[in-house]
Structure prediction request, 298 residues.
Amino acid sequence: MYDLIVIGSGVAGLGSAVYARRFEMKTLVIGDAEGGTITLTHLVENYPGFKSLSGLELAQNLLGHAKSLGAEFKTARVEKIEQIEDGFRVATQAESFEAKTVILATGTEHRKLEAKGAVEFENKGVSYCATCDAPFYKGKTVALVGGSDSAVKESLIAAEHADKVWILYRGEKLKAEPINLRRLDSKDNIETKCCVNVTEIFGEDKVAGVKLDNGEEIKLEGVFIEIGRIPRSELAKDLSVELNNHGEIKIDRFARTNIPGVFAAGDVTDADWKQAITGVAEGAHAANQAFEFLQTNS
Prediction:
């Protein structure tokens, strides 16, 4: 029986693990990818204490810290959580574990583009990760669908390799941090089209172009999609944890859910600002509250 099982090994889960071990809680972290989605981030320049480092480096630092304190790790996908007499049973496909408390730090997944050809051409020119796939488009033309800060950063990565990058956004103006907008303005090979939607991605064996709802057609070889994320809250729902209308886990300022002994942190929650630093802080707060819960209920 563990004191705490953290589900999710992204930055929020790793922050939880560091603090849980500082409180000398027997801690197991279960996640399907150590470090989480930030490992795919090209540069992190807004995490206090580090002027600039890759997302992978930040995740490795947090992971190493948690492991050095004695947190245990399992790489697996959790398929079910259920309440038992003394706490919770957490099951993967291969085995199950028991804990007195649980922290849900399951993060999010990419929102898929609902346009003709988006599914058919996935991994054939359609990608959801410029950091991963932009080098394949050296000297080519690509599009970045989306207008958030993440989308702008993805376009900057794509522009390091492609000859031409189109940013295609349904809104009237891009919603990025000023520093990233300045970087965008300095790039001669990035051009933005606002107030447009991609209606079709076409080609034969691979992507050849996109059609827009204004009647335009753009010939290109790759499409990167960054149009938001969907919370991975299915496990929470099965446990009767309360969700909001967006499927995010509802927490109070103490990272508590409506189920005693169940806490949540990071992008899967209804916190209104989702950053690595806030996710780590929420994870630390959740670990503290799990510790307080055990002190009160033991």
Notes: Residues 185 and 191 are 9 Å apart (CA to CA). The chain has two domains: 2-109+229-297, 126-225. The chain has a mean pLDDT of 95.
